[in-house]
Design goal:
heterodimer, Thiolase-like (chain A), acyltransferase activity, transferring groups other than amino-acyl groups (chain A), Thiolase domain-containing protein (chain A), ChsH2_Znr (chain B), Zn-ribbon domain-containing OB-fold protein (chain B)
Chain lengths: 351, 312
């Protein structure tokens, strides 16, 4: 079934992403971003039809931590609101479906993560299979390293290629004032071999928000809306040892269902926290050298957990807003070794 | 800006998980040094076994023994082991396809260094000395060239393991942020402060840095109380574990003078059945207390309902 109405990203805002932000609570970190994204459209919180957020209690170390952040959106008088314990890209997917129903014309989507209070490598082990895997505490870098070695063994990449992905990402990020790692960054020592510190994302705190609008409302709010032509998300088998870690069939299928292969894209914002994952995604998404990949620097330049995927959609949309792209692909991931993948295709009106 | 507070926060929980028939057999097998997989309807053997085929979603129950020896399908050298991991000396994470299996198991390989590890190398299980029916009954893997014999076990055991306890622990350094740090710092001087919304002028206490009605940041600090009014209350009759308060006691919402939001506290110094809406109260601090121990009647006349009805 084709979408019954056109829906677009009309505004995007994000924090500067930093290693620590302990002087502010989650809501204190979030409020400037919410105001920024609203200011870009002239909307007030009371104008928003639906609000959806993404975050996780495991970063905060507290149950129902998202309820505190709700203070930042003006939740009283009562608003229509939802939350996903997932990257904000999935909150955007929920908001998109809500807009498709025709019940509302605008949606605010936000996501945030403060990794600084805990050790994110250990925190992420708690999302693994609790019977066979989590009791071994394999951290997120270790699991990514297994995938990287599988790619090297398969001849899909090698350490110099991975280093070039790292260097290109941080060089691109030099133009992104929000990024945490910018310009020339040393490839460093092995963190878990074959991954060096340069192959891994920075650990940091940050937040992002986007506004979605449907049809004519989108044109009123944004000079050049980034129309969501398709969006889909898919998941791999749970067991790491069941999967072929050198490939990402779920990304390929999500891209196909989102219409990514119907016409070439000029830009791709990929949520690849590890250099080796960009290698997998480029193949799965059939991206060739003509496509500008991660002009923002991607997750290797700033990886606020739970917001980094939403930021990919926001960065792709912002490029369309300012006329730097006509058709962009945005990808978000969640879970170990590209477990879950979301692909969105965004387009600007013809010029 | 005054210094923002920080404190260690440890979140620990012993998750108790029940096992289905397949996981139960697999983990009981490990306790008995037998490795079991499960056959899919198209003839593959999954190790570790699951109850549903990840490809077809068929329910699968057909257990089959595989060898404790196998081949590394990928690996990663972990020179700095972290808390909870299988070995506390440098080791390789491995995905290992056991002989007879079609899928790989994640575990640790004890090897002298990264140069001693490669994809395709042959390894075998090193069993833990004490086994309870958990994935950690495999202490780790070790290099081994041969192929181990099967025990011929049927997969049926006396005294099956039906559950595991998986302890989880995460360590944080919690910081409450600017607004709540201000609140907690003031409490140490036995003062209560809120923050006023620049838009609706309401004073929130405890302050969280935002006005939930207007969705704007709050920053103007306002001292409230110390006296206040009971807006509503309940009588608690069940004694909480580790709580040294006799029941019944009264737990109340208290609107401190000057605050536009009621906070909660215990009411003391008055029989529980004489507490009422509108009762005027003041905080009672104990020596070294970080917050009021309880609130007691001030002896003033009760507040008029009209003065606090908006704060219920």
């Amino acid at each position: 079934m084709p979408p019954i109405r056109d829906i677009a990203v009309v505004a995007f805002a994000q924090t500067d992403h930093r290693r620590t932000s302990d002087e502010v609570s989650e809501v204190e970190m979030l409020i400037p971003v919410l105001h920024d994204v609203l200011d870009r459209t002239g909307l007030k919180t009371s104008d928003i039809g639906f609000t959806c957020s993404g975050s996780t209690d495991y970063l905060a170390g507290r149950a129902f931590s998202f309820t505190m952040a709700l203070d930042g959106v003006g939740a009283w008088p009562p608003i229509s609101e939802s939350h996903v314990e997932m990257d904000g890209a999935w909150a955007l997917y929920e908001a998109w479906t809500k807009l498709l129903t025709g019940e509302v014309d605008t949606a605010l989507v936000y996501a945030y993560g403060k990794s600084s209070p805990g050790s994110v490598r250990d925190v992420l082990t708690r999302q693994l299979d609790p019977y066979y895997v989590a009791p071994l505490w394999p951290d997120s870098v270790a699991l990514a390293a297994l995938q990287a070695q599988a790619l090297i063994d398969a001849g899909e990449t090698d350490e110099p290629v991975l280093a070039s992905v790292a260097a290109r990402s941080r060089a691109s990020a030099a133009a992104n004032s929000h990024a945490q790692l910018r310009g020339s960054v040393a490839q460093g020592d092995y963190l878990v071999r074959p991954l060096r510190t340069g192959d891994c994302p920075p650990v940091g705190d940050g937040a992002a928000a986007v506004i979605l609008a449907a049809g004519e409302r989108a044109r009123e709010l944004c000079e050049r809306p980034a129309w969501i032509r398709g969006i889909d998300h898919r998941i791999e088998a749970h067991g790491l040892g069941v999967r072929d870690l050198t490939d990402s069939p779920s990304t390929r299928l999500a891209a196909e269902r989102a219409g990514a292969f119907e016409r070439p894209v000029d830009t791709a914002e990929l949520h690849a926290p590890f250099t080796s994952q960009e290698v997998v995604l480029r193949t799965a998404l059939r991206l060739d050298e003509s496509v500008t990949v991660n002009p923002s620097g991607g997750a290797l330049a700033a990886n606020p957990v739970m917001a980094a995927g939403l930021i990919r959609i926001g960065e792709a949309a912002a490029r369309i807003h300012r006329g730097a792209s006509d058709r962009a692909l945005a990808h978000a991931t969640s879970g170990p070794c590209l477990q879950q993948n979301l692909v969105a295709v965004l387009e600007g009106d013809a010029r | 800006m005054p210094e923002v507070l920080k404190a260690p926060l440890i979140v620990e929980f012993p998750f108790t998980r029940s096992l289905g028939p397949v996981q139960s057999a697999f983990l009981t097998g490990l306790r008995e040094r037998v490795v079991l997989g499960v056959k899919t309807t198209d003839g593959r053997t999954l190790v570790p076994p699951v109850e549903y085929d990840p490809v077809t979603a068929d329910e699968i129950r057909d257990l089959v023994e595989v060898a404790p020896t196998g081949t590394v399908t990928t690996w990663a050298w972990n020179h700095e082991p972290r808390r909870g991991q299988p070995l506390d000396t440098p080791f390789a994470w491995v995905l290992v396809k056991l002989d007879g299996a079609d899928t790989a198991l994640l575990h640790a390989l004890d090897a002298p260094g990264p140069d001693a590890v490669r994809t395709g190398m042959r390894i075998r299980i090193r069993w833990a000395a004490e086994r309870s029916g958990a994935i950690t009954d495999i202490a780790c893997f070790e290099p081994y060239e041969g192929v181990a014999e099967l025990t011929g076990h049927s997969g049926r055991f006396e005294d099956m393991v039906t559950g595991i306890v998986a302890p989880a622990r995460l360590d944080y350094v919690y910081s409450p942020g600017r607004a709540q740090s201000g609140y907690i710092n003031a409490l140490s001087d036995q003062r209560t402060v809120g923050e006023r919304c620049p838009s609706c002028r309401k004073v929130y206490v405890p302050p969280r840095g935002a006005c939930p009605t207007c969705g704007v940041a709050t920053s103007e600090q306002v001292e409230v109380g110390p006296r206040g009014t009971v807006t509503t209350y309940c009588i608690v009759n069940i004694k909480a574990k580790n709580l040294d308060i006799e029941v019944p006691y009264v737990y109340a919402h208290i609107a401190l003078d000057g605050a536009d939001l009621a906070l909660h506290g215990r009411i003391g110094g008055i029989p529980y059945d004489e507490v009422r809406m509108g009762l005027r109260v003041e905080p009672v601090w104990t020596e070294g207390g970080r917050h009021p121990d309880h609130y007691r009647p001030t002896g003033e006349p009760d507040a008029d309902y009209e003065t606090y009805k908006e704060l219920l």
